[in-house]
Amino acid sequence: MGDNEAVQRAYWAGYLAAVVAERPTLLDVVHELSDMPDLHNTNSGTVTNLIQARDVHGNITFGPQ
User: Fold this and answer.
1) Rounded to whole angstroms, what are the CA distances from 51 to 19, 44, 61, 62?
2) Is residue 47 predicted with pLDDT exceeding 70?
3) Distance from C-alpha of 49 to C-alpha of 47, rounded to nearest angstrom
4) pTM above the 0.85 mark?
5) Which is the most buried residue in 2, 12, 24, 30, by most CB within 10 A?
């Protein structure tokens, strides 16, 4: 982990701690976020249509319908 990433993680940890202190009911949401696995994707070249998603419920359509 680089220095910049460590600073960003510390910032967001502090921010989330302050938000949860103000609204304790959000603690469950924060726990759900921490349980999500890390995902790293790399895309290179020319891309016409690209979707990156964890869960898709329903349809995805490109272009005119």
Assistant:
1) 31, 14, 11, 10
2) yes
3) 6
4) no
5) 30
